[in-house]
Amino acid sequence: MLRNANQSGYATLLALWVLVVFGGIATLTISLIQDETDLVTAHTGRLAVEARVDGAIEAAIPDLVAPKSRDRVLSRGGTIPVDIGGQSLSVEAIDACGLVDLNTASEMVLRNLLTELEIAPAEIVLDGLASVRRLDGPLETTAQLRGLPGLEQAAADRLADNTTVFCRIGTVDTAFAPRAVLAALPGMTGGHLDRILSFRARGEDPETNLSGSLTGTAPGPGHTWRLRVSDGDGPGTRVERIATVQITGQRGRPFVIVDWQ
């Protein structure tokens, strides 16, 4: 009897152990399936967002091709509203000449910009830019900043956000320039900066209202624009798209996308 009881007890313990093991396996399997489902959902959601922001960039371009694009963009606070599949998005539009051109800007402006962006040592960055231009010719994209000696990626990204290689003139358009670029301009004072931002907030052109009071500024020719838009539907789906668009004025090919990030 005792032996049978022991055997029965062992059998019960074994059965319980098996249940615990299989229960753990089942829980782990369910968890893995849920994780995989979440990843697939996030990936699908991100693809939908990518399609939406890509569509927003494409939908904004006709506004730049149309006449008086500069006045229209300024009146909207430097943005182009678009509707993609019933969802409203705002595309930031900056004349490329509202940024500091890495190939044509003066050393003073570049040095001031590095100071404003708290990127140091400035000499190493300036020497690196000069070396690239001397050996390889003018920079072709701001992505080349990531290869400069002594410039970490975060600093390179900050610098790229305020610079361009597509303006090709040495002046800056204050109507579109970011605050750091404005502050880097020779002769810029706090009073000038406040007035420029005030004009822009009212949809007015600072270049018209401040004519002659600053050096190194001029309205951009409107031949190249940087467009930026971001959107997301939840965690892991945020997407930002940046495109540089050149307006050609040609009937069959009115614009060219020269950079896409």
What does this structure look like?
By secondary structure, the protein is an alpha+beta fold. It has 8 helices and 7 strands, in the order H-H-E-E-E-H-H-H-E-H-H-H-E-E-E. The protein has helices at about 1-65, 70-75, 105-115, 120-135, 155-160, 180-185, 190-200, 205-210, and strands spanning about 80-85, 85-95, 100, 165, 225-230, 240-245, 255-260. It has a 5-stranded antiparallel sheet with strand order 1-2-5-6-7. A hairpin with a 2-residue loop joins strand 1 and strand 2 (about 85-95). It is extended.
Return the string of H and E elements: HHEEEHHHEHHHEEE
The number of distinct helices, counting runs of at least 4 residues, comes to 8
Question: Radius of gyration in whole Å, from Cα?
Answer: 28 Å
Structural class category: alpha+beta
Distance between the amino and carboxyl termini: 80 Å
What share of the residues does DSSP label as strand, in percent?
15-25%
What is the strand tally? Answer: 7
Strand arrangement across the biggest beta sheet? 1-2-5-6-7
Unreliable residue stretches:
none
Mean pLDDT: 87
- What coarse outline follows from CA principal-axis ratios? extended
- Helix % is 40-55%
* Largest sheet entry: 5 strands, antiparallel
Secondary structure: elements and pairs:
Elements: H1 2-65, H2 69-75, E1 79-84, E2 87-95, E3 100-101, H3 107-116, H4 122-136, H5 153-161, E4 163-164, H6 179-184, H7 190-201, H8 206-209, E5 224-231, E6 239-247, E7 255-260
Parallel strand pairs: 3-4
Antiparallel strand pairs: 1-2, 2-5, 5-6, 6-7
Any descriptors?
261 residues; two-stranded parallel ribbon; 8 helices; 49% helix; 7 strands; five-stranded antiparallel sheet; alpha+beta; single chain
